[in-house]
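User: Modeling request: complex.
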Amino acid sequence: MVPVLFTILAFQLTGEAMSRTLDLPLPGPVVGLVLLLGAMRLRPGLAEWLRTAAQGVLAHLSLFFVPAGVGVIAHLSLLRDDGVALLLAIFGSTVLALVAGALAFTLVARLTGQEDDP
Amino acid sequence: MTADPALIWAYLTQGPLLWLTATLGAYALGDAAFRAMGRQSWANPVLIAVLALGLLLTVTGTDYATYFEGAQFVHFLLGPATVCLALPMHDNLARMRVAALPIVAGLLAGSLVAVGSALAIAHLFGLGPQVLASLAPKSTTAPVAIGIAERLGGLPTLTAALVLITGIFGAMVVTPLFDALGLRDWRARGLAVGTAAHGIGTARALQVNPTAGAFAGIGMGLNAVLTAILAPLVLRLFV
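Assistant: Request completed. Predicted assembly structure:
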């Protein structure tokens, strides 16, 4: 268990260091994700070795957003002036973006003959 | 031994234990409610936990800094969990490679519409340039969104709040929306929700289907880069 946790944290740490030193537009954990994905390609055994821990962490991914979400409640006064307009902008644009993204994907998948997936 | 409740409370509020326990308890409550409602997406466990904790903080007169001393341990795990998204992406790499063109199309459309339509609606309501700059990157993952908003002259705390609201709303609306539209391709559904609603959307996609989760992860990762490029360009049309 400890070597697995160490490995995950080491990838995040390397990602953070790379994101800072190279001034990348991606946050450290996302760079760590890309590095780990690359390492899994090079050593297929790595994915199986990490599987139990990674699946355990990912099963509770939404829990980890709770503290930041409570921050929204703490900063509700920021939304006092323009709250309704901002909420409408978020609700409207999220629905439109979901539909646009999924339709564009489906359309191009059909055009390129990639619509049927096993 | 006298047990003065005020003294015990004062002692407990000094350490991280109280609010760490409360965070896990509120999420367990939210998750139980989510299951009890037949996993309906409007009963989002994050939303329930956030509302319960917000109420608790207000009732007990606790400020966010005190709360976060305990909750930071949960918050910290966001980083390692993001790294772990490499696993479902590794499992789906062959399918992603085959679907490279649809991924690029879905990403471009989703990202552009997310920034453009949000700014158009906000502009319609007459919101000022600082608020527009804070709103522009709201579909991308929080650390990236805050960096973009700062560069554009927005308010980082407002951006953080807008990012969270976008994620929770996206996670709640995605399943009923795509079911109503008859969209059944898990790759398209996942990519769209990762692009429009970052990590919270990805968390929802992972609950529903592993393929959707993997495609949501790639949508979230690529949109972080794309929004950094698109947001300043689209914002220029409105200010």
